[in-house]
């Protein structure tokens, strides 16, 4: 089973023009006489602009700068937006601009497009008839979302939030896209957005995947992180289920927050009806025992690493409680594949040398680094000395020294042949590794990384890649390695 980007029904009708005019209190531009709607998606990122879409023009002060940049609308005029829309069919543009250029695109003029996003999210959440499960955590949000959504599709139509849109604006966008008659909605929530969206989000159940160092400017301690994430449990209704693992950091804070709901502790002493036990870990697969009251089954799956296996257990338990049959869960686990670059193991060839490549550069926090490095320590044989390509961890202002010192200890424990540091701002990590006599190489471009690998990688070597993509574009290293392994040339 390969995950798809959306778990929505094939062609849901989400919005009609009458609903949009009602909630926005806007005016249909008088020059537009086209037959309008219905619409099947609601967007402000230009990358999501397709046929049958309502597009919000970002043109007022309510929008955060990061959202504007990520949307692709930064420095785009209304004319440029309309030109893109004119190339598609059945697109409606919502804008607060008063000077409308000539166009064939239907337009609703409102006082604020950001307020329109809020009202659209409220309206759609209130009429959504199914169960909404919210997921937060320092690491593992997207993976858990994808696993849970894939499981829930076994028993009903399921909407899953798109990409990494887990900021306040992203959550509102996802809520505005939930089809009314869908049975389940699985929404990823960034920790900083919980307080500002909880009254609109109104989750029925919630999952906290992990607690670790992140966004240190806002949450300087692990306790601060836990208290922020735990607010998601505090907004659950009576009878709502709060899912978290027994070995999560600051367990007590999460448990206290879950008191008014129904705590579901994975790995605890309570019989939750289904359990997943790790029998064996291999480099590219895991052997699991899935047990219920009526069955015990051993399963081989491609999900690897402690963190991802914990995410799998959280998703499986949630799906079980929502009515997915254990046999369906077992079948799905066998077929699970995480998204590309999430603990993805592949065999490649570099200049005729066969290499095992573990690509985990989708994102990086200290907790996800520890999970991946623990997996490496547990599964590689003593005669293998891994080569590690390591990029930055972002959002750790004020704690770089302590976090990189701890990361260096984790790396050293894997007995690496060499560590290739990719990108700037890694001096603390470099000095800590060199103090432990680890060979450190610096690289500024994907080509530099490949040149390093060509010089040092042995036959049957092992290469590990991880780092935060934001600000470093480390995924370009992954792309370059894969391209070169397929016979591509090296060009600057």
Automatic annotation (TrEMBL):
Entry keyword set: ATP-binding, Ligase, Nucleotide-binding
Pfam families tied to this protein: Mur_ligase_M
Alphabetized GO MF terms: acid-amino acid ligase activity; ATP binding
Domain Mur ligase central, residue spans: 135-317
Gene3D superfamilies per record: Mur ligase, C-terminal domain, Mur-like, catalytic domain
The protein's name in its UniProt record: Mur ligase central domain-containing protein
Species, as recorded: Sulfitobacter sediminilitoris
